[in-house]
Structure formats: structure tokens, C-alpha cells
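Progress report, Aim 2. The chain analyzed during this reporting quarter is listed below.
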Amino acid sequence: MKIDRLLSIVILLINRPLIQAKELADMFEVSVRTIYRDIESINGAGIPVVTYQGAGGGIGLMEGYRLDRNLLTEHELADIFTALQSVSSYGGGEHSLLMEKISSVIPPSQSAAFRSKTAQLVVDFSPWGMQKPLEERLALLKEALEESVAVTFEYVAASGAVSRRSVEPYTLVLKGPSWYLYGFCSERGDFRLFKLLRMKSLVKEERRYVRQDIPVKELPWSSGWADPSGTTPVVLHFPAAGRHLAEDYFDYSELHPDGDGGYTVTVYYPEDNWLYGFLLGFGPLAEVLEPEHIRRRLGEIATGIAAVYSSCGDSGKT
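Predicted C-alpha cells for the chain:
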């Protein structure tokens, strides 16, 4: 849309001393003639645009022109900029123009201090390594949310069961290291939380839906872990060889030295397949002391794993 292009050009001009008409034309995929017509429209709106001819010339704003920046303080703008940087670390490239807009309202005399503030905290949500399929699912679900259209996908449950789902998407949730979709599932007649990595054959439907107002207190991704009735206390022991793992995963206030260079720690988690996978991930460098039934279950799982790999030599598999 022309109005979007005009606004974007104004933001770029505010944030840069000079920019070439050809660069703007390439950026917005229009002709140079169209860019000059846009400049005339911007001038007509009272924003002073100046064209400088010759080598090193270009298009710029009249010296001293700035956006009104009385609405937010520089500290508040730095906080917003940092948050946008964090979102942009994982499929959020559409925020780059807004970040440039925020930078444009900072006076030149304060720009160095602003850059310093926005570099003090970095929150990078992107995983180690590339996850292109996950990024593609995120992009498709963002489109479905904006367009208020349902999506269809095959969902692989933790049990391994596969089901076909038609879902009205409401919210994308980044919980810990994983992305989830919260939406209304037609097959279940209720709201459900779906892990994106468990989705297969995700497509948008033509069916549109009217979004309902969902009270914040009903959103499910925090309440389960906060409710003590839904968790199990687990006492872990890390020997000296596993000390570094304890310090990586738990706060020092939770760790109790065992006198031999190791730690014991009591944690509270919902008892499910995630918990067993989490505990097994420590390998022999952590031992569950309590409760006894979790010790037994971990032993059974470990025995099953050992049986799988001990048979590799007999079957000739590698």
C-alpha cells in the first residue's frame, strides 16, 4: 500500500542522513519515478525533504528535523528496543522497521548512550543450529492468526498416537525451549495446547472464525507448574563429577553440598514423560534418591535402553 511505503520512507529518512532514490526503489520494488512522486507527497504533508545533487548526494530531511519524542523516555524506548531485538531473534524480522523507527527518535547526541543501553541485555530465543521447518510453521501460524483462519495438521501425541486436528489459532507461546500453539480444537470441542515440533502437514484452511475473549486466568501454560498439588518433590544427588550439571540447571540457593564435592537438591516437577526424559538426560552424573517409585521407573527405562543397544552387536547393526 502507498501509505505504508510513504511512512516507511519517512522513517528511513529520519534515521539516515542521506539515501539514494535507486536504493529506495529497489527496497520497495517500485520505479525511481515512483519514489520521486512519493517524495513530493511527503513534502506536501509538511515533512521537509531535500534532494542533494552530484556525487555523494541523495535524498534527506532538512537538517534539525526530528520526530516528537515526548511520549516515551529514552529508558523506556531502550526497553522496547531490547524486547524487539529478542523477538526478532526467532522469526521476527518484520520488527526491523519498528526498531529503526525507535532509533530515529533518539537525538544524535544521545545515540551512543542509547546503543549502549540496548546492548546491555541480549535475549536470543533462537535455538543452537538451524530449525527451518519450525520457522516455517511459525510463519504460517502467524499468517493464520492475522487472517483469523483455522489450520489443519496431524498431531503426534507424547504416547505416539497420531490424530488429525482442525484448530482455530489464538496464541503462539514460547515456553522454555519449545514453541506451542494455543487454540480451539474442533475435534475436542475445547481449547488445547499443541507443541509445534509435534505437528505434521500443517496447512491453512479457508474457514474463518470469530475470536473469543479468553480470560488470562484460564490460560494454561503457567498454572500447572505453579500448583503444588500437580507436582512431585524429587530429591537428586549429583556427585563431584556431576557438580557442573547441578550448577547449570539449578540456583545456588537450591543446592546443598554433600561434603564430598557434590550436591543434593530437591525440585518440584509434574510427574510425566518429560520428567523421566529430563532426569535420564543427566546420565550417571545424577541419582534420584526419592521418591522410590520414580527410582524404579527410571531403572526400568534405563534397562530397556540398555537392552536395545546391547542387541546391536548381535544383530550386526551399528
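The radius of gyration is 27 Å. The mean pLDDT is 79. These observations will guide the mutagenesis work planned for the next reporting period.
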